[in-house]
Write a structure and sequence with these properties.
245 residues, alpha/beta, Rossmann fold, N-(1-d-carboxylethyl)-l-norvaline Dehydrogenase, domain 2, 2 domains, five-stranded mixed beta sheet, 8 helices
């Protein structure tokens, strides 16, 4: 296992067939993902296929600008996992992955789709995953945003998991559903038609009694626990923190 990204030109290495990028997509924080990957993906690359298993829209554009002849694949992951305590990861939902090629005028559609289908076949080889080829990656990304851009932050702000927020009087109709309708309308403006049932599906995608904390709420709770432990570690009451239970 390597602890840094190899520089294939300096080290005389053969180009990789695939580079899979699954880091959090934070475009405003340097270094950029293009800068991180560059040593293993020369600008003139025509061999390596780049797979972006990341959330968000337009994540492919920086790579299409810096590596115009590279096939860039979209990966929309639907896996569920949690970290109940440091260093202990629980995968509580089957690994599902949608793979398709981003548009690239410099590479034929036949080549792009062929690379996507080849990756799907490789990913499924272990028999433990459900990886499917998708011809409409924008639809996949906007559909996931109906959940991620709405239910996820609303749960984080209110402190309610996606079961309790459905039980809270007026929360779904007053907060969640209107926000999801905005995402559906925004997608429609760009020609992406989401199904009529997408809002109800995303609201009820998890069993109510699972009381699942979406990722943003999980992060909020983790920070709260960390700050609480810091405060409790002080021998005297700290003037710097005030945390409600």
């Amino acid at each position: 296992m390597l602890n840094k990204i190899p520089d294939i030109e300096k080290e005389g290495l053969e180009p990789y067939d695939y580079i899979v990028l699954s880091t959090k997509n934070i475009p405003d924080v340097p270094p950029s993902v293009v800068e991180l990957v560059m040593p293993a993906l020369p600008k003139n690359n025509t061999h390596t296929t780049l797979v972006l298993i990341q959330n968000g829209l337009n994540i492919e554009k920086p790579f299409l600008e810096s590596h115009p002849n590279t096939v860039v694949l979209s990966g929309v992951s639907l896996i569920g996992s949690a970290q109940p305590r440091p260093g202990h990861i629980v995968q509580d939902e089957h690994d599902r992955l949608l793979i398709g090629a981003f548009d690239n005028a410099n590479v034929s559609g036949e080549v792009r789709d062929s690379k996507a289908k080849e990756f799907v076949e490789l990913y499924n080889k272990g028999g433990k995953t459900d990886c499917q080829w998708s011809p409409n990656v924008l639809h996949d990304r906007w559909r996931k945003l109906v959940y991620n851009a709405c239910l996820n932050p609303i749960c984080a702000i209110t402190g309610l998991d996606n079961g309790r927020i459905r039980l809270a009087d007026g929360a779904v109709e007053g907060l969640v559903r209107p926000a999801m309708q905005e995402i559906v309308q925004a997608a429609r403006k760009l020609g992406v038609q989401l199904g009529d049932d997408v809002i109800d599906f995303m609201i009820n995608v998890d069993p109510l009694d699972l009381y699942l904390a979406p990722s943003m709420l999980a992060d909020v709770r983790k920070v709260r626990r960390t700050l609480t432990s810091i405060v409790l570690s002080f021998p005297y009451p700290s003037p710097f923190f005030s945390i409600s239970p």
